[in-house]
Amino acid sequence: MDAWLRPTSLADALAALAAGPRVILAGGTDLYPSHVARPLPGPILDITALPDLRRIEAHPGYWRIPCLATWSDVIGADLPALFDGLRAAARQVGGVQVQNAGTVIGNLCNASPAADGIPNLLALDATVELASRAGTRHLGVADFVQGNRRTARRPDELAVALRIPRPAGPALGVFEKLGARRYLVISITMVAVVAEFDPAGRIRRARVAVGACGPRALRLPGLEAALAGRRPEPDLVTPDLAPLAPIDDVRASAGYRLQATEELLRRALGALGTSRARAA
Amino acid sequence: MSVIGFVLNGRPVVATAPPAQRLATVLRDAFGLTGTKIGCDAGDCGACTVLLDGAPVCACLTSLGQVEGRAIATVEGLAAERLAPLQRAFLRHGAAQCGICTPGMLMAAVALLARTPHPDEAAIADALGGVLCRCTGYRAIIAAVADAAATLPAEPEAGAAVGARVARRDGVEKVTGRERFGADALPAEPFLTVRAVRSPHPHARFVIGDLAPLFAAHPALVRVLTAADVPGSLRYGIYATGKDQPVLAEGRVRHRGEPVCALVGPAEALAAIAEAEVPITWDPLPPVRFDDATCSEALHAHAPGNILCRGRVRAGDPDAAPPPGAVHAAIAIETSFVEHAYVEPEAGYARRVGERIEIIACTQTPYMDRDEIAAILGIRPEQVRIVPTAVGGGFGGKLDLSVQPLIAVAAWLTGRPVRMVYSRPESMASTTKRHPARIRAEAVAGADGRLFSVRFHGDFNTGAYASWGPTVANRVPVHATGPYAVPHVLCTSAAIHTTDPPAGAFRGFGVPQAAIAHEALMDALADRLGLDALEFRLRNALRPGCRTPTGQVLGADAALALCLEALRPRWRAWRDEAAAFNAANRGPERLGPERRGVGIGCMWYGIGNTSLSNPSTMAIGLARTGRVVLFSGAVDIGQGSNTVLAQIAADALGAPLAAIDLVTGDTDRTRDAGKTSASRQTFVSGSAARLAALALRAEILRRANAGAAARIGFLPGAVQVSEGTESSLLALETLPADADGMVLRAEGHFDPPTTPLDEDGQGIPYASFAFAAQIAEVAVDTALGTVTVRRIAAAHEVGRAINPTLVEGQIHGGIAQGLGLALMEEYVPGRTDNLHDYLIPTIGDVPPIEVTLIEEPDPLGPFGAKGVGEPALVATAPAILNAIAAATGARVTRVPATPERVLAAIRAARDGGRA
Q: Which residues of A touch B425 (CB under 8 A)?
């Protein structure tokens, strides 16, 4: 088996994966740092030469973020306010150097508990398009991410794209991240919210997700249900944080994470209110 | 291996290498483009930033395979024939200090300027936020990018170098990527690599098993070094009495990251060896923690109770009853390990030349390295040649040996050149840190607002080995009152061994930790007396003629009062503005969580070693060519001594700065200038350089039979001595030259006058003290506990600013490190061995800084100059912590003041009322 492949067609890529498991390399912004001062483990499938998998595209019922779309591509794409949260996350993933190389799907597949992309993808109700020689399947992000650095991707599959469904009405995304410095900071906790509004400006439906507060990012269904039919404001509800299971680590204690998460949720709801006019 | 073609700095090239190899490695190793630096190998520092089709990326995260057919631009491509405008701007603004981050900064900025020719500060910060700098505090970098059309500063006339903002002498190398740092210098001959195998345990016994299977599996492996292979003294250490640190551990390790054996062989062969293949059996022992070290089993026989040493200063009657109406304050504070986090990991190589060894590596102290390596190899110091490379940041961390012992032993035993480059995790796990401190202090002031007494005790976690622990233990009690006149004093310290990494030298030697305590006390006393915090400090400031707690009487240069008076207008204005903001934000309709506050911190700092001789000898020569050469053993670690010493020598000699060349560091060519540490090179080596230049001047004038006021012109092959209308030409070509080509040579020697401290700490510990006061304004998010420093003003008494741009650079950089100490830096052994878990300030964290330089000439310093390397760091954390208290009423007593700790303090203050 070749130690390194860089196929120029999806069919070749899937054939290579069908032949045996490979480490998949795209932007390299997670893979290389996990092997400091050592060579990458092989065999490697470098997917960056695959054609037509970079451009973020609008389709009738959904947007598609292909697997080579970088954070900079998200920042530069013509996307509606629904994506404001994802865009805010994109500006805070590493520095410009990492944003230029790192991919949104790579962030998802790396499945770090502190991945800034994942709460946003949960709030966007994104699904993952997984391709293999056996066919294509679609999994919701909540089903795809199974735990700390564990996903449902089979070794013969490639996560080819994300699909973000178009909401029925005006919608807005927000992202609140807490870190201990201005740039290049791993989140202590983070909150992503996407809300769809009815014509009267009330929340028709909201999806709320929290990251860095457990082995994987989670939605808060209790809070989501409580928000339905209400106008967004900071002190709308006392969030039920029971689903979260943060840990103590070098960045903060579990207790502080919960306190800060509650505050970030209030701010996210406040931002929904103040930025509601952006929703389209 | 693949053959991969791409365009490199405009030229098509082909690389033959594994396609998954990091582009940074390919650029450096295959193309020799060492301007692209590897600081972390993990995308955390941005030093390896290059442009890929015009967009900045980290070359350490980019595979060679991915650049096929694309265009790469590196720092070497910026200046084809002459410097690019941005490079000139970096030199004018002092935006490059050590220079290790400069290529990354330049490339990130070039990409920004291509898109946005006139960026504002926010855009600059966003574009450069991915590159870490540990020296400059970023403000000069922001200024340079905003002023990318700048020209180079003019070269001063003869006699006008001191006080001029000249560009660094070594600046062009730093902005073009040509500077050679530890990992950039390679032996000419084929070389071996050494890789240390390090302890994963903080405390353990170990046995190294049979190595035969390892050699059998890896035939290219040349040697495995163990403690038994060290030819001379196994143990080394800073103090003659403290040689306690083994080159390789002998059956027992005392900290995580301690080397137990070392593999020597070709780099590829070593890379193929898995750590698990090295047969080591570990028997973990209970760690010795700072909490209970004094009642744990002693780690060293010479340190019962794990107490390495103590320090003490006693003055007046510390037990005297306070006067009626006196107020009292007490504080207990705790600080964390702080990592130097220079962007350059330790690196270098050694080669054996007959019966001599040459070490080419980054260091702050070539002569101490020379003597240590001689002892380790069992040879005479004259058999060791240390050739320092450029140093990509030191801050005290490169005062201890790192790669040197292993490369020296390996090269000595194999007879082949041997290279070692620390990885970032290895550097962080194994090298020294700032001492964590636990301090209790109390102070009493009379109703007249004058300090009456101070009591202070600090325990300092000095880790597994002594390193610079005694220096910290001695320096802290001398400084622990703060820069104030106090009649009754008892200040004590202890350096305590634990199974943590060795704590050593770090900018300030324990004084930054102590200052957090004394400045909290000053605020508390002022508050209790109903006095303004600045005015209270001014009333108690050490002034000319004051007696310090060690009994030293200060001279006319003790100018803390001038610093405070300089800050007073801003102090009042900023406090009014913060109060207005808080009042506006407190109304029922605008109940935001942000509160602002302004805090003040003062400091004093003794220049040079504490009560120990610390001489410097500088040599200067006149070459046959008519050029002047300053032979300086002082290592420029980015602070600018190469430039400052040349400025001093130029004016003392009466030569234009441009006539002076530099030979630095090499122990075969220079004299011992002492270490680059304790803010001493300008003061001590500057004095020596001045004396050397004066002696050379006297010799030239003597030969020309001219008077002291004569002018000397430096011409090709001759000097012209003019006095009034008389002029004589001294031809140099016919004079005999020494091995360096010098026809005249002179030396200068200076050792600052100090006296030993007695058992009560009485004596003259330093020949000179620097003084400073700083204020900081912060915004505290009282719902999350996050702190943003909004602005800082710093007033420093520097004696004479030899080069104001460099002095401001030291102040900015010290402030950035002080901000990190205050708010985010906390090294946890085994948990934060990288630059994403260990946080240092980024370009977005350092606020605008206003610097006021106060010049009260020091009677001993060259042209009146003092040292300025450490003071700004000392005053910063106290000012920030006092500002947090002013904003919130909450006193954070454990640093760093992380969001969690700040929030907890706010809630405790709210629940308990104002204590």
A: 36-37
How far apart CA B363 and CA B381 sit, in angstroms, is 17
User: Parallel, antiparallel, or unpaired: how do β-strands B2-8 and A218-219 relate?
Assistant: unpaired
Distances (CA, A) of B799 to A56, A69, B77, B654, B754: 61, 57, 41, 21, 19
Distance CA(B521)–CA(B485), nearest Å, equals 14
Sheet of strand B711-715, all strands in order from the earlier edge strand to the far edge:
B711-715, B718-723, B726-731
Structure tokens at B362: 């980054």
**How close B111 gets to chain A, by Cα (Å)?**
10
| b/e B341-356 (16+ beta carbons within 10 angstroms → b) | bbbbbbbbbbbbeeee
Most B CBs within 10 Å, among A32, A97, A181, to test the B interface:
A97
B277: DSSP letter: G
Helix (H) or strand (E) holding B585: helix B560-586
Nearest to B201 by CA among B286, B291, B284: B284
| pLDDT by residue, tens only, chain A of 280 residues | 789 999 999 999 999 999 999 999 999 999 999 999 998 988 999 999 999 999 999 999 999 999 999 999 999 999 999 999 999 999 999 999 999 999 999 999 999 999 999 999 999 999 999 999 999 999 999 999 999 999 999 999 999 999 999 999 999 999 999 999 999 999 999 999 999 999 999 999 999 999 999 999 999 999 999 999 999 887 777 888 999 999 999 999 999 999 999 999 999 999 999 988 888 7
B901 part of contact set with chain A, CB < 8 Å: no
| Number of other residues whose CB lies within 10 A of the CB of residue A21 | 12
**Contact B123/A at CB under 8 A:** no
Instruction: Give the strand pairing for A44-46 and A4-5.
Output: parallel
**Are residues A28 and B55, on separate chains, in Cβ contact within 8 Å?**
no
**Distance from C-alpha of B445 to C-alpha of B409, rounded to nearest angstrom:** 58
Element (H, E) at B838: none
Which 3 state secondary structure label does DSSP give B473?
helix
8 Å CB contact of A94 and B63: no
* Inter-chain CB proximity B132 and A185 less than 8 Å: no
Q: What is the DSSP letter of B248?
A: S
| Spacing of C-alpha A10 from chain mean position | 23
Q: How many CB atoms lie within 10 A of CB B301?
A: 7
What is the ipTM for the molecules in this complex? 0.97
d(CA B286, CA B584): 55
Domain B192-286+341-430 has CATH 3.30.420.10: no
Please give the CATH topology (third level) of the domain spanning B2-77: Ubiquitin-like (UB roll) (3.10.20)
Q: Please answer yes or no on whether B65 and A4 come within 8 Å at the CB atom.
A: yes
Among 3.30.390.30, 3.40.630.30, 3.30.390.50, 3.40.190.10, what is the CATH number of A171-278?
Answer: 3.30.390.50
What are the distances in angstroms from CA B248 to CA B62, B229, B512?
Answer: 36, 9, 32
Torsion-angle region of B305 (φ positive above 0: left; ψ -120 to 50: alpha; else: beta): left
Residue B26's φ and ψ, nearest 5 degrees, are -65, -45
What CATH topology corresponds to B557-605+765-912? Aldehyde Oxidoreductase; domain 4 (3.30.365)
Counting Cα atoms < 13 Å in the Cβ hemisphere of A113 gives 14
Helices B686-703 and B641-653, interaxial angle, to 10°?
30
- With CA atoms as reference, the chain B residue closest to A91 would be B126
For residue B914, the model assigns a pLDDT of 45
Tell me the sheet residues that pair with B599. Answer: B776
Question: SS3 of A139, please?
Answer: strand
Superfamily (CATH) of domain B85-176: [2Fe-2S]-binding domain (1.10.150.120)
